[in-house]
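Pipeline run #58 for the internal structure catalog. This entry was flagged by the ingest filter as a single-chain record with no existing model, so it goes straight to prediction. Upstream metadata was stripped on purpose; only the residue string is passed forward. Reviewer on rotation: M.T. Logging verbosity set to normal.
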Amino acid sequence: MPPDESKAVSRPASAPAPGALLLCRAAPDAVVPLAPLLRERMLLTRAGEWSVLVPEGSPWLRGGEPADRVLTGWAATLAVGSAWPVLALWWDADRAGCVLASGFRRPVGYAWLPDGTPAGKSEAMHTFAARLGLDPVLDGQLLDGLTARDPAADARARLMGLIAVLTHAGVELPEGFAPGEPGDRLREVAGAGADVRHVGGVGGIRGVRGVAVAGGMPRAHRLALAEVAVGVPVAAWGVRRRSAGWAAVGMALMAHGGLELSYETVFPRD
């Protein structure tokens, strides 16, 4: 008796699992002190002249949060506390995209539908090229190609094309890394690396404090002061621009730094 083909056809296909990468234009040592600000456990490893962070926990999306909003927040949080840009790549069942955050400037992003249909403004790619110091002509043409319709290129191919252009800026993903892969596959590849580090954490503060106990003038204390100093103007800038996102980032930095300083006051070190 032949198999019931109608049942096979009616079986729903599983939706692609969401995934994310955070590329920081800095060495891993420079990323470690700021990683706890993300309040998420991360795997950190080198990516050429850059570093790459992969969410270690699963699921890292909670309460129906869209992937692009979460990654924009992560990228902005790292960028405002550093002197280097942060590029976030994300993908889920509905879209895939990228967000570039650099200092106090407004993050810029682009997205594609699963079949690769562009869903953003082409000017974003010109901003990418300028902020990353890419060649405005040669690299600019390649980035423009990612915003043009191409029936043969799906969302994953678009992300791979972006990574190919970023090699001109020093990005070199570890072997086995590929945007569009399920999160568990990325964690497996990252965890197998010889220089992988486990950073961050849900509580955030515990990760920073653990770095500080080594001795001398506590690094956590210096970082806490820096967070408060950065958070005040970021929050004020967000209020002036009526940007709830930036105001929230500033408030989070102030709250995180203030809590760490209060811990030092209540529980002073010997």
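catalog note: Residues 215-264 form one domain.
catalog note: The mean pLDDT is 77.
status: ready for reviewer M.T.
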